[in-house]
Amino acid sequence: MPKSMTGYGKSRIESDTFTQVWEVRAVNSRFLDLKWRLPLFLRPSEAALERVVREAVARGRVEIHLEFTPTRVDMWKASFNTGLAGAMLDELAAFAAHKGVPFAPDISRMIGISHLWQEEAVDPDPELFAKLASGLRQALVDFNDARAREGRNLADDLLTRLGRLKDWQAAIEAGAPAVVAERTEQLVARITALLEKVGVEPTQDRLLQETAILADKLDVSEEMTRLSGHLARLEGLLRQGGEIGKKLDFLIQEAFREINTCGNKAQNLDISRLVVDFKAELEKCREQVQNIE
Protein backbone atom coordinates (compact mmCIF):
# COMPACT_ATOMS: atom_id res chain seq x y z
CA MET A 1 0.00 0.00 0.00
CA PRO A 2 1.16 3.58 -0.59
CA LYS A 3 2.21 6.01 2.14
CA SER A 4 0.64 9.33 2.93
CA MET A 5 2.83 12.43 2.88
CA THR A 6 1.24 13.66 6.10
CA GLY A 7 2.19 12.12 9.41
CA TYR A 8 3.80 12.53 12.82
CA GLY A 9 6.47 10.52 14.60
CA LYS A 10 8.34 10.83 17.87
CA SER A 11 11.13 9.13 19.77
CA ARG A 12 12.51 9.68 23.26
CA ILE A 13 15.78 8.16 24.42
CA GLU A 14 17.30 8.72 27.83
CA SER A 15 20.87 7.87 28.83
CA ASP A 16 23.21 8.63 31.71
CA THR A 17 24.57 11.68 29.90
CA PHE A 18 21.64 13.20 27.98
CA THR A 19 18.03 12.92 26.87
CA GLN A 20 17.04 13.28 23.23
CA VAL A 21 13.50 13.80 21.99
CA TRP A 22 12.96 13.83 18.22
CA GLU A 23 9.72 14.96 16.60
CA VAL A 24 8.99 14.53 12.87
CA ARG A 25 5.89 15.93 11.19
CA ALA A 26 5.10 16.44 7.50
CA VAL A 27 2.55 17.73 5.02
CA ASN A 28 2.29 17.18 1.29
CA SER A 29 4.73 18.78 -1.14
CA ARG A 30 5.90 18.11 -4.69
CA PHE A 31 9.45 17.49 -3.51
CA LEU A 32 11.32 16.66 -0.30
CA ASP A 33 11.59 19.90 1.68
CA LEU A 34 13.30 19.59 5.08
CA LYS A 35 12.94 22.15 7.86
CA TRP A 36 15.26 21.65 10.84
CA ARG A 37 15.03 22.85 14.44
CA LEU A 38 18.29 21.66 15.97
CA PRO A 39 20.61 22.75 18.77
CA LEU A 40 23.41 25.00 17.56
CA PHE A 41 26.09 22.37 18.04
CA LEU A 42 24.33 19.97 15.67
CA ARG A 43 23.69 22.35 12.80
CA PRO A 44 26.98 21.57 11.04
CA SER A 45 25.77 17.96 10.89
CA GLU A 46 22.54 18.77 8.99
CA ALA A 47 23.86 17.27 5.75
CA ALA A 48 24.62 13.95 7.46
CA LEU A 49 21.22 13.95 9.17
CA GLU A 50 19.53 14.74 5.85
CA ARG A 51 20.98 11.52 4.43
CA VAL A 52 19.35 9.66 7.32
CA VAL A 53 15.99 11.25 6.50
CA ARG A 54 16.27 10.47 2.78
CA GLU A 55 16.60 6.79 3.65
CA ALA A 56 13.02 6.87 4.93
CA VAL A 57 11.23 9.76 3.14
CA ALA A 58 10.98 10.61 -0.56
CA ARG A 59 8.52 13.54 -0.73
CA GLY A 60 6.83 16.03 1.56
CA ARG A 61 7.50 19.14 3.59
CA VAL A 62 9.09 17.62 6.67
CA GLU A 63 9.73 19.49 9.93
CA ILE A 64 12.24 17.85 12.29
CA HIS A 65 12.81 19.04 15.85
CA LEU A 66 15.35 17.80 18.38
CA GLU A 67 15.10 18.60 22.06
CA PHE A 68 18.52 17.79 23.52
CA THR A 69 18.94 17.91 27.30
CA PRO A 70 22.37 16.96 28.69
CA THR A 71 22.66 15.71 32.24
CA ARG A 72 26.39 16.40 32.47
CA VAL A 73 27.49 19.98 33.06
CA ASP A 74 30.65 19.55 30.98
CA MET A 75 28.56 19.06 27.84
CA TRP A 76 27.56 22.72 27.82
CA LYS A 77 29.39 26.00 27.57
CA ALA A 78 27.84 29.40 28.31
CA SER A 79 29.23 32.70 27.08
CA PHE A 80 28.21 36.18 28.28
CA ASN A 81 28.09 39.12 25.87
CA THR A 82 30.12 41.53 27.96
CA GLY A 83 30.27 44.20 25.26
CA LEU A 84 26.50 44.47 24.90
CA ALA A 85 25.99 44.28 28.68
CA GLY A 86 28.53 47.07 29.26
CA ALA A 87 26.89 49.26 26.63
CA MET A 88 23.48 48.72 28.22
CA LEU A 89 24.82 49.70 31.67
CA ASP A 90 26.57 52.77 30.26
CA GLU A 91 23.36 53.94 28.60
CA LEU A 92 21.39 53.42 31.80
CA ALA A 93 24.04 55.27 33.85
CA ALA A 94 23.95 58.22 31.41
CA PHE A 95 20.15 58.26 31.52
CA ALA A 96 20.18 58.24 35.34
CA ALA A 97 22.74 61.08 35.43
CA HIS A 98 20.66 63.10 32.98
CA LYS A 99 17.60 62.71 35.19
CA GLY A 100 19.58 63.33 38.37
CA VAL A 101 18.67 60.05 40.03
CA PRO A 102 21.04 57.58 41.69
CA PHE A 103 21.99 54.50 39.68
CA ALA A 104 23.11 51.26 41.39
CA PRO A 105 22.70 48.38 38.90
CA ASP A 106 21.86 44.89 40.15
CA ILE A 107 24.22 42.77 38.05
CA SER A 108 22.48 39.53 39.05
CA ARG A 109 19.36 40.60 37.13
CA MET A 110 21.31 40.19 33.89
CA ILE A 111 21.11 36.43 34.35
CA GLY A 112 17.52 36.66 33.21
CA ILE A 113 18.27 38.66 30.04
CA SER A 114 18.35 35.80 27.52
CA HIS A 115 19.90 37.65 24.59
CA LEU A 116 23.02 38.43 26.66
CA TRP A 117 23.76 34.71 26.95
CA GLN A 118 24.62 32.11 24.37
CA GLU A 119 24.60 28.44 25.24
CA GLU A 120 26.74 26.09 23.19
CA ALA A 121 27.19 22.39 23.50
CA VAL A 122 30.55 20.77 23.03
CA ASP A 123 31.01 19.66 19.42
CA PRO A 124 29.56 16.14 19.14
CA ASP A 125 32.01 13.28 18.86
CA PRO A 126 31.22 10.42 16.42
CA GLU A 127 29.73 8.32 19.22
CA LEU A 128 27.33 11.10 20.25
CA PHE A 129 26.33 11.74 16.63
CA ALA A 130 25.69 8.02 16.11
CA LYS A 131 23.36 7.98 19.13
CA LEU A 132 21.51 11.05 17.88
CA ALA A 133 21.18 9.56 14.39
CA SER A 134 19.79 6.38 15.95
CA GLY A 135 17.21 8.46 17.82
CA LEU A 136 16.24 10.17 14.57
CA ARG A 137 15.83 6.80 12.84
CA GLN A 138 13.50 5.63 15.61
CA ALA A 139 11.38 8.76 15.17
CA LEU A 140 11.31 8.15 11.40
CA VAL A 141 10.12 4.57 11.96
CA ASP A 142 7.24 5.88 14.08
CA PHE A 143 6.63 8.58 11.46
CA ASN A 144 6.49 6.05 8.61
CA ASP A 145 4.16 3.78 10.59
CA ALA A 146 1.74 6.70 10.88
CA ARG A 147 2.11 7.50 7.19
CA ALA A 148 1.51 3.86 6.26
CA ARG A 149 -1.71 3.75 8.27
CA GLU A 150 -2.93 6.94 6.62
CA GLY A 151 -1.80 5.62 3.25
CA ARG A 152 -3.91 2.47 3.67
CA ASN A 153 -6.93 4.61 4.45
CA LEU A 154 -6.29 6.77 1.39
CA ALA A 155 -5.84 3.71 -0.84
CA ASP A 156 -9.06 2.11 0.43
CA ASP A 157 -10.96 5.33 -0.19
CA LEU A 158 -9.52 5.71 -3.68
CA LEU A 159 -10.25 2.09 -4.58
CA THR A 160 -13.87 2.61 -3.54
CA ARG A 161 -14.08 5.73 -5.69
CA LEU A 162 -12.46 3.90 -8.62
CA GLY A 163 -15.22 1.29 -8.36
CA ARG A 164 -17.82 4.01 -8.84
CA LEU A 165 -15.84 5.49 -11.75
CA LYS A 166 -15.71 2.09 -13.45
CA ASP A 167 -19.48 1.70 -13.09
CA TRP A 168 -20.07 5.14 -14.65
CA GLN A 169 -17.57 4.45 -17.42
CA ALA A 170 -19.36 1.19 -18.24
CA ALA A 171 -22.71 2.99 -18.28
CA ILE A 172 -21.37 5.66 -20.65
CA GLU A 173 -19.86 3.01 -22.91
CA ALA A 174 -23.11 1.01 -22.95
CA GLY A 175 -25.25 4.06 -23.71
CA ALA A 176 -23.07 5.57 -26.44
CA PRO A 177 -24.23 3.31 -29.35
CA ALA A 178 -27.87 4.15 -28.68
CA VAL A 179 -27.02 7.85 -28.81
CA VAL A 180 -25.29 7.37 -32.17
CA ALA A 181 -28.26 5.42 -33.53
CA GLU A 182 -30.76 8.00 -32.28
CA ARG A 183 -28.81 10.95 -33.68
CA THR A 184 -28.35 9.11 -36.99
CA GLU A 185 -32.08 8.52 -37.35
CA GLN A 186 -32.74 12.18 -36.58
CA LEU A 187 -30.19 13.25 -39.18
CA VAL A 188 -31.63 10.99 -41.88
CA ALA A 189 -35.14 12.21 -41.16
CA ARG A 190 -34.01 15.84 -41.26
CA ILE A 191 -32.08 15.47 -44.54
CA THR A 192 -34.95 13.53 -46.14
CA ALA A 193 -37.48 16.16 -45.10
CA LEU A 194 -35.36 19.02 -46.44
CA LEU A 195 -34.70 17.35 -49.77
CA GLU A 196 -38.34 16.36 -50.23
CA LYS A 197 -39.34 19.93 -49.46
CA VAL A 198 -37.35 21.14 -52.47
CA GLY A 199 -38.42 18.18 -54.61
CA VAL A 200 -35.13 16.27 -54.59
CA GLU A 201 -34.99 12.52 -54.07
CA PRO A 202 -32.41 11.65 -51.32
CA THR A 203 -29.82 9.15 -52.50
CA GLN A 204 -28.61 6.28 -50.33
CA ASP A 205 -24.96 7.16 -50.90
CA ARG A 206 -25.46 10.73 -49.70
CA LEU A 207 -27.30 9.58 -46.60
CA LEU A 208 -24.62 7.02 -45.80
CA GLN A 209 -21.91 9.66 -46.17
CA GLU A 210 -23.63 12.11 -43.82
CA THR A 211 -24.44 9.44 -41.23
CA ALA A 212 -20.86 8.13 -41.34
CA ILE A 213 -19.51 11.62 -40.64
CA LEU A 214 -21.92 12.03 -37.74
CA ALA A 215 -21.14 8.59 -36.31
CA ASP A 216 -17.44 9.38 -36.38
CA LYS A 217 -18.02 12.66 -34.53
CA LEU A 218 -20.10 10.94 -31.84
CA ASP A 219 -17.97 7.81 -31.48
CA VAL A 220 -16.31 7.58 -28.04
CA SER A 221 -15.02 4.02 -28.28
CA GLU A 222 -11.36 5.06 -28.40
CA GLU A 223 -11.80 7.40 -25.43
CA MET A 224 -13.57 4.66 -23.49
CA THR A 225 -10.77 2.19 -24.22
CA ARG A 226 -8.09 4.59 -23.02
CA LEU A 227 -10.16 5.63 -20.00
CA SER A 228 -10.68 2.01 -19.02
CA GLY A 229 -6.93 1.47 -19.27
CA HIS A 230 -6.20 4.50 -17.06
CA LEU A 231 -8.64 3.31 -14.39
CA ALA A 232 -7.13 -0.17 -14.42
CA ARG A 233 -3.64 1.28 -14.11
CA LEU A 234 -4.73 3.49 -11.20
CA GLU A 235 -6.10 0.47 -9.38
CA GLY A 236 -2.95 -1.53 -10.07
CA LEU A 237 -0.69 1.20 -8.69
CA LEU A 238 -2.77 1.59 -5.53
CA ARG A 239 -2.55 -2.15 -4.84
CA GLN A 240 1.14 -2.20 -5.68
CA GLY A 241 2.18 0.64 -3.33
CA GLY A 242 5.55 2.38 -3.22
CA GLU A 243 6.31 5.92 -4.41
CA ILE A 244 3.33 6.25 -6.73
CA GLY A 245 1.95 9.72 -6.00
CA LYS A 246 3.26 11.43 -9.14
CA LYS A 247 2.17 8.51 -11.37
CA LEU A 248 -1.32 8.62 -9.92
CA ASP A 249 -1.53 12.37 -10.48
CA PHE A 250 -0.47 11.99 -14.12
CA LEU A 251 -2.96 9.18 -14.78
CA ILE A 252 -5.80 11.21 -13.28
CA GLN A 253 -4.90 14.09 -15.60
CA GLU A 254 -5.10 11.69 -18.56
CA ALA A 255 -8.45 10.34 -17.32
CA PHE A 256 -9.78 13.91 -17.15
CA ARG A 257 -8.69 14.46 -20.74
CA GLU A 258 -10.59 11.38 -21.96
CA ILE A 259 -13.79 12.03 -20.00
CA ASN A 260 -13.81 15.68 -21.13
CA THR A 261 -13.66 14.51 -24.74
CA CYS A 262 -16.55 12.14 -24.08
CA GLY A 263 -18.54 14.95 -22.54
CA ASN A 264 -17.94 17.16 -25.57
CA LYS A 265 -19.00 14.42 -27.99
CA ALA A 266 -22.02 13.20 -26.04
CA GLN A 267 -25.18 14.91 -27.23
CA ASN A 268 -27.38 13.14 -24.74
CA LEU A 269 -28.69 14.35 -21.38
CA ASP A 270 -28.27 11.03 -19.56
CA ILE A 271 -24.67 10.62 -20.68
CA SER A 272 -23.92 14.25 -19.85
CA ARG A 273 -25.13 13.63 -16.29
CA LEU A 274 -22.89 10.57 -16.02
CA VAL A 275 -19.93 12.60 -17.28
CA VAL A 276 -20.56 15.31 -14.68
CA ASP A 277 -20.75 12.72 -11.89
CA PHE A 278 -17.59 11.05 -13.19
CA LYS A 279 -15.64 14.32 -13.26
CA ALA A 280 -16.80 15.31 -9.78
CA GLU A 281 -15.65 11.98 -8.36
CA LEU A 282 -12.40 12.11 -10.30
CA GLU A 283 -11.69 15.54 -8.83
CA LYS A 284 -12.10 14.06 -5.34
CA CYS A 285 -9.60 11.37 -6.33
CA ARG A 286 -7.15 14.04 -7.46
CA GLU A 287 -7.44 15.81 -4.10
CA GLN A 288 -6.69 12.58 -2.26
CA VAL A 289 -3.76 11.72 -4.51
CA GLN A 290 -2.05 15.01 -3.56
CA ASN A 291 -1.41 13.45 -0.13
CA ILE A 292 0.23 10.26 -1.44
CA GLU A 293 4.00 9.98 -1.57
Automatic annotation (TrEMBL):
Xref: InterPro entries: YicC-like_C, YicC-like_N, YicC/YloC-like
Matches recorded under PANTHER family: UPF0701 PROTEIN YICC
Family as reported in the entry's similarity comment: Belongs to the YicC/YloC family.
Name of protein: YicC family protein
Keywords annotated in UniProt: Endonuclease, Hydrolase, Nuclease
Pfam family, any one: YicC-like_C
Cofactor dependence: a divalent metal cation
Keyword Acetylation recorded: no
Domain Endoribonuclease YicC-like N-terminal: 3-155
Boundaries of every Endoribonuclease YicC-like C-terminal domain copy: 172-293
Alphabetized GO MF terms: hydrolase activity; RNA endonuclease activity
Protein source organism: Solidesulfovibrio magneticus (strain ATCC 700980 / DSM 13731 / RS-1) (Desulfovibrio magneticus)
